[in-house]
Amino acid sequence: MHSYHWSMPFFRVFHQLGHLSRASRDTLIVIAGVAVTFVLSSAFDLAERVNAWLLTYEYAQLDEVPLTLFVLVLLSVWFSQRRWREIHAEIQRRKQTEARLSSSQQLYKTLFDGDLTGNVVLDLEGNIGMHNRAFERICRPLSHNRNTRELFSFDWLPFIVQLQQQQEINFNKLQIRRPDGLPCYVSARFVYMAPSDNQAAQIHGYLVDMTEQCLVEQDLERTLKENRVLARHAMQVQEHERKYIASEIHDETGQYLTAIRMDALTLQKSTPEQAHVIAVRIASNTQHVQQSIRALIKHLRPPALDSLGLVGAIERLVSDWKKLNPRVDCHLLLDTGEHALNEDINIVAFRVTQEALTNIARHAQATEVWIDLQVIQRQDKWWLQIEVRDNGKGMDTSLATEGVGLVGMRERIESLHGSFKLMSGLQAGTLITGLLPLQAHPQALPASSLPTNPGVNDYATS
User: Fold this and answer.
1) pTM for the full predicted model
2) pLDDT in tens, 86-138
3) Which residue among 56, 180, 423, 447 is buried most deeply as judged by most CB within 10 Å?
4) Which ranges carry the Histidine kinase/HSP90-like ATPase domain (predicted)?
5) What is the residue range of 64's domain?
6) CATH code of residue 184
């Protein structure tokens, strides 16, 4: 029983030592070693015995060193060596940890910046704390104050209140107000991060660029709307043409043909003197029928295209147009070289020029018009370039127009796989450019017949 009571405190002491650090345990070992040496020296006269043994080495004066101090020095050296090894091991561990941390940060930065999604960290005021290159690419150039409250197309304060309530808000299509004014649309997700002990509340935003897709959808929607308008206009024009042709045939040709038929019936019963008069009347009525049919054909298709070609037909078109608009100066630069254009290209080029002149007379209030028709070469392909420019009041191209003139021109050109371009501005005039691909390569054209800078007019000012 006595041994049991004596052993329990020792077990408790060793159990408590197990919870101490190595430095604390080593310190206790040094103190215990010095204390044990002191106790043994006092109890067994170790100091006198050691001094007696050291008399042999009197020349070294070893007896002058107290035994307890000597033990203390040895234990201090042992303690210092163990602390140095611990510090050295700790330094190595920290270096390895810093290397892993640096590698992890580099990997995180690479993944963060290399992500195609625009990632941004905001505070509740909209200030940017951190963002990646994708966000910079989507929203650039960012304003100098690095605040995004005016960047998104929603009211910031109601958005913050709603986000705090719902914790997450998604946008299928969100417009970005870029400082440079370029269109930008994204799908976005915003997540609210509640404040913690060492960090204020944050908003994590994830943006996916959808600008190209949205612009294509807008262009498709505009094209569908224009096609509906154009189809409705085409049906109206078709009905108008049918009514016009029916009226011409009934009012002009029909009446004269009826008169010719009546004269022919009368001719059978007439005398030779009456037959001469009736024959003259039949010839006159036949001439009127021919003139009516010729006028109808001219209305349906410009005969000048067949007789004069594209250049001659446009020159006659401009000449007739100037008679109706004498105050407008019209400058022509027409040169198709020696290349023979096919019928489809001739009709489209003529109708586009005709429609452009009609729009100028109706809307432009211009004093000068430039018409450029040339065969040019781009990227080893030959094109017929049509340019009609005026110095009129122009238009705002960002606004939709209800007319079908421009839509008709675009549809005619694109039906032959060409390209149509409209450039205009308020009080800046209008430039219409059409490019029609040629089926076959033209013959060798003289250098003077090709523009040195395709797309730029070079007109005489006279």
Assistant:
1) 0.45
2) 888 889 999 888 888 887 777 666 666 666 788 888 888 888 888 888 888 88
3) 423
4) 344-440
5) 16-110
6) 3.30.450.20
